[in-house]
Amino acid sequence: MKNKKKKAPNPMWGGRFDFGSNNVAKKYTSSLDKDKRLYKQDIKSSLAHALALREANLIDRKEYSKIIKGLDKILKEIENNKFHWEEELEDIHMNIEFALEKKIGRAAQKLHTGRSRNDQVVTDLKLYLIESINEINSLITKTQKSLVNKALKFHNQLMPGFTHLQLAQPITFGHHLLAWHEMLERDYGRLIDSKNRISTLPLGSGALSGIRYNLNRNKLAKRLRFKEVTKNSIDAVSDRDFAIEFLSCACMLGLHLSRMSEEIIIWSSTQFGYIEIPEEFCTGSSIMPQKKNPDVVELLRGGSSKTIANLIGIVSLLKNQPLAYNRDMQEDKGFVFESIDYCVSSLEIFSSLVEGLKINRKRMEEDCNLGQITATELADYLVLKGVPFRQAHSVVGKIVMYADKTKLQIFDLSLEELRKFSKKIEKDVFSFLLPSESIKSRNLVGGTAPKQVLKQATKAMKMLKNRKKS
Ligand code: ARG
User: Fold this and answer.
1) Three-state secondary structure string covering 248-266
2) Nearest 5 degrees, angle CA 311-CA 315-CA 317?
3) Distance from CA of residue 100 to its chain's centroid?
4) Contact at 8 Å (CB) between 152 and 174?
5) Which end of the chain is more exposed for a tag (fewer CB within 10 A), N or C?
């Protein structure tokens, strides 16, 4: 190729190069399509950095004022879709800096004093994650409120509880909804914990070894609302633990959304018929006119696999990287953004879906008349009458066998029939055998008794209402 056909080197780092990058290589190395999303954070951290430069007398008042006005204009242009993106310039950081130079001239070239893209990108990503966690957590809270509201309403709604997806013991529907609430409560807490560890400011670390200019890092941290500054510049630019930690929280949240979705799909099937998904969240079939399919919930379940894949993705990305910064790290944002998007959009839709769920009380109750669902209660009864548990278990096994043979439920048997198996059984046994009665007795903290569920749901709602917005 003739030299004249070659392009000029990159204006930001091309000093030691004769020629610009190969076009294919430029495209290959560009991260602009992904990191465009960091524009607000990039401008925010640049504004704070400019102020630190000013305070250290590294730029004069005029330059400072030009920089902040220029950055402000760029922010508005991006927000109004008027910004001219240059794919050639690799990433968001260089796009903004280049645009600033075009607007304000030489002063823009001073903005990168005491800063490297290595500490800049990690600062931006941390800022972005902190905001995203706040958004996800407020959506978790919203979803929890929908769940707890329903739990309050259905605190005494009888339904079968399952193990191995087989009928196990009667429970209340409100109790099951509170189980979902607890799962989300842990997600909320995990995200808060991870946010605490994200909150260390890398700016001031330079490319890897720190900076020689006397910038006040603590002030900078305060302004950008970081709790503290990073304590080792090599670690600061190579650390992506915070992204892994976030992705593992997102993965767990995805897992929870998927498990809840799975139950909604099962319960809304014709065979179960316990709940009805609002029509607006269902789709029909182009061939089977009768179909109402739970597509939205299936995509909640299916989409959660991205949160698992992204966790594995970032861990594999980091595994073999030596300290400090390597360009591989640029790939981190794809994983992070995709998981954020899944969490935000899924929580948004899941909370409205829960609100709109219709409950078929009768079907839930009917299924408690199947599967000898109070057999454990009968064993408990015998234990309370002094029979050792193992023996009680075996007696009840025989009663179940007898009831199954006669196609009856154990609570349909007469007292005489029951007494053939144990003389300890008396009239009071029926409060143990009837599902609607037996649930009342599980009245310890965490149990399924309507009273308990009402208490827990009331407490949970109070806690959620008092939760501070971050
Ligand atoms: N686009 C890069 C990233 O996302 C920014 C940092 C580049 N630093 C460098 N020394 N090449 O990681």
Assistant:
1) HHHHHHHHHHHHHHHHHHH
2) 115
3) 36
4) yes
5) N
CA distance 329 to 299: 30
- Nearest in space to 233 (alpha carbons), one of 123, 113, 321, 130: 123
Question: pLDDT tens, 398-439?
Answer: 999 999 999 999 999 999 999 999 999 999 999 899 999 999
Which of 89, 121, 126, 336 gets mutated to test ligand 1 (max ligand atoms within 8 A of its CB)? 121
User: What lines the ligand 1 site, CB under 6 Å?
Assistant: 31, 35, 91, 117-118, 121, 325, 327, 329-330
User: How many CB atoms within 10 Å of residue 321?
Assistant: 14
Number of residues in the chain: 470
Which residues, at least 6 apart from 443, have a Cβ–Cβ distance to it below 8 Å?
A: 449, 451, 452
Asked whether the whole model's pTM tops 0.85, one would answer: yes
Distance CA 42, CA 93 (A): 7
Specify the DSSP element, H or E, that contains 171: strand 166-172
Atom of ligand 1 nearest to the CA of 35: 4
Q: In a mutational test of the pocket of ligand 1, which residue from 91, 203, 205 has the highest number of ligand atoms less than 8 Å from its CB? A: 91
Average pLDDT, the chain: 94
Rounded Cα–Cα distance for residues 72 and 91 (Å): 19
Alpha-carbon separation of residue 324 from 207, 283, 328, 442 (angstroms): 9, 50, 11, 56
Q: What mean pLDDT comes out for the span 446-470? A: 95
Measured CA to CA, the distance from residue 326 to residue 213 in angstroms comes to: 24
Residue of minimum CA distance from atom 4 in ligand 1: 330
Residue nearest atom 7 of ligand 1, based on CA coordinates: 117
pLDDT tens digits along 207-263: 999 999 999 999 999 999 999 999 999 999 999 999 999 999 999 999 999 999 999
Q: Which residue owns the Cα nearest ligand 1 atom 2?
A: 330
Long-range CB contact pairs, 293-296, < 8 A, 24+: 294/264, 294/265, 294/268, 296/349, 296/353
CB atoms under 10 Å from CB of 57, counted, come to 9
Active centre residues (catalytic): 164, 285
Rounded alpha-carbon distances, angstroms, from residue 147 to 4, 27, 64, 92: 67, 47, 51, 40
Q: Which atom of ligand 1 is closest in space to residue 333's alpha carbon?
A: 4
Q: List the one residue out of 403, 324, 327, 347 whose CA is nearest residue 371.
A: 403
